[in-house]
Amino acid sequence: MTNDHVIVLPGGGYTRISDNESAPIVAWLESLGMSASYFAYPVNTRHPAVLEAVRGEIRARRDAGADRIALLGFSAGGHAAGHAALAPGASARERVDLVMLCYPVVSMMLPTHQVSRETLLGRDATPEQRVATSLDLLVTPDAPPFFVWHTAEDDAVPVQHSYLLGMALAGAGVRHALHVFARGGHGLNLARDAGGARQWTDLCAAWLREEGWLP
């Protein structure tokens, strides 16, 4: 039997760590019978500090006995999760086996979510820096499976971010699920009172079962 662990990366625009996307998410995962923890990655700091910190947390969980590691990220934490999974240069101990992204920041080329981009890269980020931190431009055929969800009404991190990632995953032949719900704004976390978006936890649990992470 494998020893699996999920690292939760809350959102917060790279300026703070969101409380409602941390402990409540760990509690939900544990209710499914999974081992989980949330990681308070460094904020208000420039790239590559976050990437290096997340990779360090992955190594620590492997040293603690985890055979398989998944990342679950929200908004800017979704960017941090996707970046750790897709950026080149990861060692074997730093590679992740599964990724779940909730209304993620994906592209640093789009004009939207400016606060995440400027906090991570600065206002004078070069085109090369923006390309190197855009998840959709980092997808390769050996990327791990992805589960992604977003809402069409999200005006903080528009749904185009997830569409770009979905297209890149499809183009590279990476196994993935992409769900877009018609209603709901940004920062829904468990989305218990958010109409159709409340389905995301059941859909994610079903996907985890299909991927062999739940019985």
TrEMBL record:
Residues 66-167 form the BD-FAE-like domain. Pfam families: BD-FAE (PF20434). GO terms for molecular function: hydrolase activity. It comes from the Bacteria. Keywords: Hydrolase. InterPro entries: AB_hydrolase_fold, BD-FAE-like_dom, GDXG_lipolytic_enzyme. This is BD-FAE-like domain-containing protein. The lineage of its organism: Bacteria, Bacillati, Actinomycetota, Actinomycetes, Micrococcales.
